[in-house]
Design goal:
123 residues; alpha+beta; 6-stranded mixed beta sheet; 6 strands; 27% helix; globular
């Protein structure tokens, strides 16, 4: 990533590309130091080297990432990217490039919201 992501949308595309290329180096450049990456509620990594290792392992299991931002809410140098299967918090660094601070690639582990009965009631 020579120039970096110029927008949050660009960052999503670069993450998809890094998964396709199975490039740990490309992945590391997309995340801030100390960033958190959570996938499927079971895999969690912190920091570039751990995240690169996890993504490489996921790629070997044929896991992919499809950049499909549904909504992006931006406040200054921070943005929330909502996708069909996750939520990502990204920040623009002093170099102008956007990087992930938190990447949650799946919400499968979050229980669905109840539609009947009062909140806090047992099913």
């Amino acid at each position: 990533m020579a120039v970096g992501a110029r927008t949050p949308e660009d960052l999503e595309t670069l993450l998809e590309d890094a998964f396709v290329l199975r490039s740990g180096e490309a992945i590391t450049e997309l995340f801030e130091d100390g960033a958190v990456f959570v996938a499927d509620g079971t895999w969690e990594a912190r920091g570039g080297p751990e995240i690169a290792h996890l993504v490489t392992e996921m790629s070997q299991r044929n896991c992919t990432y499809l950049a499909e931002p549904r909504r992006i809410v931006q406040a200054g140098n921070t943005a929330l990217i909502m996708t069909e299967c996750g939520a990502n918090v990204v920040r623009r660094g002093t170099d102008g490039a956007w990087r992930y601070a938190i990447a949650l690639l799946s919400q499968d582990h979050i229980p669905p919201r109840r539609t009947n009965g009062a909140a806090g009631e047992s099913p």
